[in-house]
């Protein structure tokens, strides 16, 4: 079981009109690993994540989660199955405070709104889980701050906290460090590193230092196809990847 | 609206309630022989306030703009009119549940079909359903066509033979409507501050994100649609009780548009705003009607100016927009009341230090 992929795609393809955004991708994520997806802009990374989370249906191919096909399921259904996802754009509820944001995320996975309504005990459990994830994300001191009043970096951290609050098995994070300063980036990297013993992470990130520090395995995508996939060291040494992505022939590849 | 309102809102609402509720005491002294007429107008305002408030749940809280809300208002009126016996008053004990049940069933049916649409499509589909019922009712002989149906006896509220409230007395009916409005307000305040209301806020802000968290958002929207429809139907029933008839105009799109204007005027998403909006709209209407027969022009201009100057309605003058500390006023107003605005922040900090 340990070596079986928690998430696997076979021949996954998505076309937008004439454009093939994701082309025949075979992709495996093993339980407990941090799997980073690299690639230049327009390589199809976000589309791939959207296909995995059910945000868009694939044109062809298969997505298996814990051995069961999930392609065609909606984003809500995959969320209930334990695939948590964060977006590239900061996606929090600005009118709620930090704690409420996390409670909202936790509640639907703990019996739903009406269970919390009926039982005080359940409502308290939801709050406890929310506080736990805030603690994990080092936002405890911000629990009662309206999300709108927090710094950008804190909002990004809150977004990760919200995904954690849904108690996912697998987290799909689309550029969790986008737009952050060095210090904040390192903070989030530390946070993600601390999650690996409990969660499986699929990560799109442009910050190379963080990616090579965090990832167990890396998949490099170019033009919708997988260029190379393997352990971090292999990717670091790969000539092919260096040529295409790390900028030796920069002017040729950045289209 | 999850945060509690500032004290001034409660104060304002209590003060307004006190002024309106004591009208029978001071009305005669101020308006003389006109007092009875004014009382009737006030009763209507209370009913319309409930109607506008029910629409706020849909438009202001969930973010679904409906142009067919009169469907439920009219449905409430017609249910009462058609279910009332011809030669004796109906009992409110079973009339009220009947109206609520009919409205809930209708809202569920319509809601299942429209709730998946958004924006302009939601406006058009709700409008279409409203107009369908309008033409059905105004052409069918069963519902009295364009004349509507008369209600010969106002429903009574009695236990056995003893009448609890003599609703035929305009003063008693006035207080009855005030009570229903207050109940409706407290119910909606409770609902919007509950976990359920939190989900509705989430849907309003970012429905997609709610789905990504695992919420079946359509279900929650449908529940809100049904609750909103039921409250509107209660308002419609009260309106039919007051006038003694149900008329197709009560469910036409004019009525839907009017209540939407009250909502915009009062301030969406605040629950109490629509009450202020309904009163303001009706008072303006009353004044303009007396000034000129071309009052719709004046009313239209007023709404345009109101939207420009008070984008968040009358309520926007009193409460802050979500996530901000101080009421943000329109630029001209900020300049006008600049001193007052500058004076208020220290007060806030002082309070924080004390606590």
From TrEMBL, chain A:
Gene Ontology annotations for the cellular component aspect, listed alphabetically: plasma membrane
Keywords (A to Z) from UniProt: ATP-binding, Nucleotide-binding, Transport
Top-level taxon of origin: Bacteria
UniProt GO MF annotations: ATP binding; ATP hydrolysis activity
Classification via SMART domains: AAA (SM00382)
All copies of domain ABC transporter, residue ranges: 7-248
InterPro entries tied to this protein: AAA+_ATPase, ABC_AA/LPS_Transport, ABC_transporter-like_ATP-bd, P-loop_NTPase
The keyword ATP-binding appears for this protein: yes
Annotated PROSITE patterns: ABC_TRANSPORTER_2
Keyword Nucleotide-binding included in the entry's annotation: yes
Name of the protein in question: Iron-sulfur cluster assembly ATPase protein SufC
Gene: sufC2
UniProtKB/TrEMBL annotation, chain B:
Record's bilayer topology term: Multi-pass membrane protein
Principal subcellular localisation of the protein: membrane
UniProt-recorded name of the protein: Branched-chain amino acid transport system permease protein LivM
Molecular function GO labels: branched-chain amino acid transmembrane transporter activity
Keyword Membrane: yes
Organism of origin: Halomonas beimenensis
Record keywords: Cell membrane, Membrane, Transmembrane, Transmembrane helix
Compartments reported by the entry: Cell inner membrane
InterPro entries: ABC_transp_permease, LivM-like
Transmembrane region(s): 12-31, 43-72, 92-113, 120-137, 171-188, 219-240, 260-288, 295-319
Alphabetized Pfam families for the sequence: BPD_transp_2
Transmembrane recorded as keyword: yes
Entry GO terms, CC: plasma membrane
């Amino acid at each position: 079981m340990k070596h079986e992929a928690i998430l696997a795609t076979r021949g996954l393809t998505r076309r937008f009109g004439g454009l093939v955004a994701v082309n025949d991708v075979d992709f495996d994520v093993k339980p407990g690993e941090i799997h980073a997806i690299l690639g230049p802009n327009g390589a199809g990374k976000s589309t791939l994540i959207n296909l995995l989370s059910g945000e868009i249906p694939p044109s062809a191919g298969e997505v298996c989660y814990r051995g069961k096909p999930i392609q065609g399921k909606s984003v809500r259904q995959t969320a209930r199955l334990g695939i948590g996802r964060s977006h590239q754009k900061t996606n929090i509820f600005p009118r709620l405070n930090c704690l409420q944001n996390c409670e909202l995320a936790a509640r639907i996975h703990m019996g739903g709104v009406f269970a919390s309504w009926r039982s005080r005990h359940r409502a308290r459990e939801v709050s406890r889980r929310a506080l736990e994830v805030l603690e994990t994300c080092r936002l405890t001191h911000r629990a009662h701050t309206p999300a709108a009043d927090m710094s950008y970096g804190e909002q990004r951290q809150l977004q990760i906290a919200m995904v954690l609050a849904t108690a996912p098995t697998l987290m799909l994070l689309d550029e969790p460090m986008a737009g952050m300063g060095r210090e904040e980036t390192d903070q989030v990297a530390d946070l993600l590193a601390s999650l690996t013993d409990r969660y499986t992470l699929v990560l799109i990130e442009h910050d190379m230092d963080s990616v090579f520090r965090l990832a167990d395995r890396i998949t490099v995508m170019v033009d919708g196809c997988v260029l190379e996939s393997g352990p971090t060291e292999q990717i670091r040494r790969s000539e092919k990847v260096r040529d295409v992505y790390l900028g030796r022939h920069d002017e040729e590849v950045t289209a | 609206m999850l945060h509690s309102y500032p004290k001034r809102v409660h104060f304002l609402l209590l003060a307004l309630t006190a002024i309106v509720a004591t009208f029978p005491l001071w009305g005669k002294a101020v308006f003389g022989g006109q007092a009875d007429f004014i009382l009737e107008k006030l009763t209507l305002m209370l009913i319309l306030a409930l109607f506008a408030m029910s629409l706020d749940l849909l438009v202001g809280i969930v973010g679904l703009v409906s142009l067919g809300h009169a469907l439920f208002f009219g449905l409430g009126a017609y249910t009462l009119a058609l279910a009332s016996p011809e030669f004796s008053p109906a009992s409110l004990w079973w009339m009220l549940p009947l109206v609520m049940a009919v409205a809930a069933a209708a809202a569920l049916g319509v809601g299942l079909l429209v709730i998946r649409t958004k924006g302009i499509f939601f406006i058009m589909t709700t409008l279409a359903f409203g107009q369908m019922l309008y033409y059905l009712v105004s052409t069918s002989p069963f519902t009295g066509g364009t004349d509507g149906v008369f209600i010969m006896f106002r429903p009574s509220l009695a236990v056995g033979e003893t009448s609890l409230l003599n609703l035929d007395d305009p003063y008693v009916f006035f207080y009855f409507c005030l009570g229903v409005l207050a109940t409706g307000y407290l119910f909606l305040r409770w609902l919007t501050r509950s976990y359920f209301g939190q989900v509705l806020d989430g849907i309003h802000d970012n429905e997609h994100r709610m789905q990504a968290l695992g919420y079946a958002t359509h279900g929650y929207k449908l529940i809100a649609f049904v609750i909103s429809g039921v409250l509107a139907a209660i308002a419609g029933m009260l309106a039919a009780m007051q006038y003694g008839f149900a008329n197709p105009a009560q469910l036409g799109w004019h009525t839907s548009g009017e209540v939407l204007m009250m909502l915009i005027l009062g301030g969406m998403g605040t629950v109490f705003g629509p009450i202020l909006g309904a009163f303001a709209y009706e008072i303006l209407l009353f004044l303009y009607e007396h000034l000129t027969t071309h009052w719709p022009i004046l009313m239209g201009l007023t709404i345009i100016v109101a939207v420009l100057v008070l984008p968040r309605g009358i309520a926007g003058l009193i409460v802050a927009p979500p996530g901000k500390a101080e009421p943000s006023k329109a630029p001209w107003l900020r300049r006008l009341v600049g001193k007052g605005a500058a004076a208020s922040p220290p007060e806030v900090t002082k309070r924080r230090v004390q606590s």
